[in-house]
What does this fold into?
Amino acid sequence: MTDLALSYVHGAADEPLLGQTIGQALDRAAAAWGHRPALISRGQGVRWTWRELRDRADALAAGLLALGLRRGDRIGIWSLNRAEWTLTQFAAAKAGLILVTINPAYRLSELEFALNKVGCAALVTATAFKTSDYIGMVNALAPELAASVPGRLSAARLPDLRSVVQMGGPPVPGAIAFDEVPARGGEAERAELRELAGQLQFDDAANIQFTSGTTGSPKGVTLTHHNILNNGYFVGRAMRLTEADRICIPVPLYHCFGMVMGNLAAVTHGCAMVYPGEGFDPLATLETVQAEGCTALYGVPTMFIAELDHPEFAHFNLSTLRTGIMAGAPCPIEVMRRVVERMNMREVTIAYGMTETSPVSFQSATDDPLNRRVSTVGRVHPHLEVKIVDTEGRVVPRGQSGELCTRGYSVMLSYWGDAGKTAEVVDGARWMHTGDLATLDEDGYCNIVGRIKDLVIRGGENLAPREIEEFLFRHPKIQEVQVFGVADQRFGEELCAWIRLREGETMSEDEVRAFCQGQIAHQKVPRYIQFVDEFPMTVTGKAQKFIMRRVVEEQLGLKRAETA
Ligand code: AMP
It folds into this structure.
């Protein structure tokens, strides 16, 4: 067998990697596209040019230094999508701080864990949004805040935290108003900032992101300037972004989809970042695309489904759209086709990746044949290597499925403070083992066929839920479906399907079974079929199958047979 027949690809590229820090990229954007729009946050009435954004980031960076923060310190950010988020991202990078992006859905124990795990010295927090009382939760964890001198907090449960910076709202006692931070930076801090610019290295850590909660315990993925700036740049290049583009970003900033594929693609190509609102809202997204003439739109599959199915969808003029990205979870072919046809996103791409790889490793190209663009995650990204291996670590032949491993500039430094966990996923040759199951075809196009952890093992046979989901999704009454394993005394595991029907439809379990009959192997027909109104999802569009499994097992009293 020749090498060509093995599942190994390298993204040979003419264009070199960027050797810059994020701060240098911002300075370059301000010099090249100074008067062009950089950031539009509709709900806040913010419209800044690249020069304005750079000036504001410099001022905030000086203010952060004045709070006593030093190169390498961790600064947490806990908020939905607001202009201050992005300002903090760039200011932290300029001040040499490591931005710790905290999921706005986190609650007390998760916040405490995240802040302490990486030893945050400062926290920039929102005040409140809908039912989330962010500042109330900070106060609950650190009741000492109210009586503390701003910037000199000493709290028993958050021992490293010194400063709480509060955005949007009158600051509570002990906290510092976000808008007042820049004014704290004087000439000394400005000078320090200029000096830092010459010292910071692109291999310095710039960001810690906690991985999404699809599997349980969060880990702090530590990424450098070089990791994420380059990934943002090459993601943008795959969409052929230029300074004429305006990216609508309804995906969360705390996740790499927003902050890397959105913000860092924008800063390296001079595009505008357009935020439709703090949290995802399909109507606000459609309105924003129309009102701001967006040329690119991002989303996880469920967001695009919500936009396409919105009762007012047909009223919007989306003719400015050209491209965008669907990513984060398996992208149904049918939804991709509707995005191309009904949203005018003729150059839409699919991206695949994970936080630990900055995130993107595969992305379709705008000129890939439509069929490939909707049915695969595209080809390997420039400069990266990917191999698909079997359980023994051997590269499998093309077309055979195995674990996808990625190597190259994009692989994280480490899980913060967790050398053991890092070594479990990044091997001695610097391959990141993703835990995703994939195939590579002869031309290098990749399909994600499942997750190793999702595999259902029924009576010793491996069943891939993804394959069954794709099949059931073809039924016209079915809007969304999730297939997962539940405990079974006899087989170890049995399949269960949760189905959400299209508006106004009804369906019986027997109808689902009849649809499968003769079409898929009998062991792939789910033993349990339940109709639900919604799925437990993370904000980044990932179905939390471990929760579904628990619910069904409790409801049906299912137990695993005892084993040795
Ligand atoms: P995160 O670290 O939160 O970005 O999640 C990464 C995981 O999301 C990957 O390991 C995949 O399981 C999944 N994922 C991301 N993009 C895709 C995609 N295009 N198709 C299928 N799964 C995806």
Remarks:
- The CA atoms of residues 77 and 124 lie 5 Å apart.
- The first helix runs from residue 22 to 33.
